Input
Amino acid sequence: MSSITITYAVYPPTETVLPDELPTSRTIEVAVNALKDSGSSYYGGLHEALAEARNQIGIDLTIWRDAVGKLELSKESKKGKMDEEEEEEDGEGDEE
Output
């Protein structure tokens, strides 16, 4: 029986809080449920297997996107606070 195998590895920034439910590398194997002899049946099964593999990767990468996105948001909020403090300091000197 045919199958589709996809292996990926994620290298998040070192500051990222790693999701407990997902390792940094994974191999996904999805069986192609179709007879090799029948062209349309095989390609229909292949299409379904590719869709399943794509969905599994999408679920995994969404978890990683959320984990890294939270880190990026915290960096931006810290930067925004620092910029506001610098503007306040600059503004005080202009009034003299």
In short: The chain is about 60% helix and 15% strand. The chain has a mean pLDDT of 81. The first strand starts at residue 3 and ends at 9.
